[in-house]
Specification:
By secondary structure, the protein is of the alpha/beta class. The protein folds into two domains: 21-183, Rossmann fold; 212-282, Conserved Hypothetical Protein Ylqf, Chain: A, domain 2. It has helices at residues 21-33, 55-61, 78-90, 103-107, 110-116, 118-126, 146-154, 195-203, 214-228, 230-236, 248-258, 270-282; strands at 39-45, 66-71, 94-97, 134-140, 172-176, 179-183. Strands 3-2-1-4-6-5 form a six-stranded mixed sheet, sandwiched between helices. Bound molecules: guanosine-5'-triphosphate (GTP) and magnesium ion (MG).
């Protein structure tokens, strides 16, 4: 990989299967299940709300009451999350920011779901079926926290949740006090319109790492975060200001050198440095970071 290309080719240089067969199957299941549900909860990653808005999910669920959850808000820049909430509100969409691992976070969603469904609950009450469980389909990109949210909402670990994409493999209904929640596998879409969208999804761990080049991923991530939060990056790796203008691959080498990640001959072990960079970003070691801002003047 040349230094010039590093960071720009996170995904476009290889034959990547980021849309495996099971995702196509999940979209078909979603199309079928959507007819029988009352409300859609779409989880977005608070660090990349725009890139986690899957157009396929939007198409399939557009006729149902819809609530957006900006999840992993604990990892995102709080000031930017506030702007995203205002943005969704201005579009007339229900939206909340949460940390699904916190019990209170998931519980806070009950009220807004019921508010989205006021008309439906009134109709049910009039028909004497006020106690009918509200059927909610929980959807979103892989690894965004759908199963974690459901477990937290239910107050017990009912759905398998792990820190890698593709953990939930089939649909699963989970019933809790007045709600039937449908957990679904995460889905991406066939063709990303922008390389930036693809890169952002890769940075946060929504695309399987084993089909990506970890060094390209790390270079792209360093370049993107440096443009938005230069101080945080310099502080984390104790770099001086000259690092602000280094080509991304040189920046990765500088990080590796600072951390003493050398191989025989004094060369930097860039693969190891890349794993560290990606792992530390995802573990929020660089501080709270939002990679996307809402469009201006909306
Ligand atoms: N920091 C933080 N981590 C979270 C949050 N919600 C979920 N996670 C973590 O994100 C990882 C993925 O969570 P899952 O619930 O398995 O995600 P999923 O959307 O069900 O993923 P798939 O089933 O693979 O599509 C786990 O390690 C969770 O602990 C959150 O709000 N904040
Ligand atoms: Mg899951």
């Amino acid at each position: 990989m040349s230094a010039e290309n590093a960071g720009r080719d996170v995904l476009n240089s290889r034959r990547i299967q980021w849309f495996p067969g099971h995702m196509a199957r999940t979209l078909r299941v979603m199309e079928k299940e959507v007819r029988g549900i009352d409300c859609v909860l779409q989880l977005l990653d608070a660090r990349i709300p725009a890139s986690s808005l899957n157009p396929e999910i939007r198409r399939i669920t557009r006729d149902k009451p819809h609530l957006y959850l900006l999840n992993k808000a604990d990892l995102a820049d709080a000031a930017i999350t506030k702007k995203w909430l205002a943005y969704f509100k201005a579009q007339g969409a229900g939206c909340l920011a949460i940390d699904a691992r916190q019990k209170g976070g998931a519980a806070a969603v009950r009220g807004p779901i019921l508010r989205e469904l006021t008309a439906l609950t009134a109709k049910r009450a009039a028909r004497g079926m006020a106690g009918a469980a509200v059927r909610v389909m929980v959807v979103g990109i892989p690894n965004v926290g759908k199963s974690t949210f459901i477990n937290s909402f239910a107050g017990s670990a009912r759905a398998k949740a792990e820190d890698r994409p593709g953990v939930t493999r089939g649909k699963q209904w989970i019933s809790v006090e007045g709600f039937d929640l449908l957990d679904m596998p995460g889905v991406l879409w066939k063709k990303f319109d922008s390389l930036q969208t693809a890169s952002h999804l890769a940075f946060i761990g929504s695309i399987r790492d084993d089909i990506l080049d970890i060094e390209e991923l790390a270079c792209g991530l360093l370049e993107s975060v440096r443009a938005l939060y230069p101080k945080q990056l310099l502080e984390r790796y104790k770099l001086d200001e000259t690092a602000l203008v280094l080509p991304p691959y040189d920046l990765l080498q500088a990080v590796g050198r600072k951390r003493g990640m050398l191989v025989s001959g004094g060369e930097v072990d860039t693969e190891r440095a890349a794993r560290t960079v990606v792992g530390e970003f995802r573990a929020s070691k660089w501080g709270r970071i939002s990679l996307e801002r809402p469009p201006q003047n909306t």
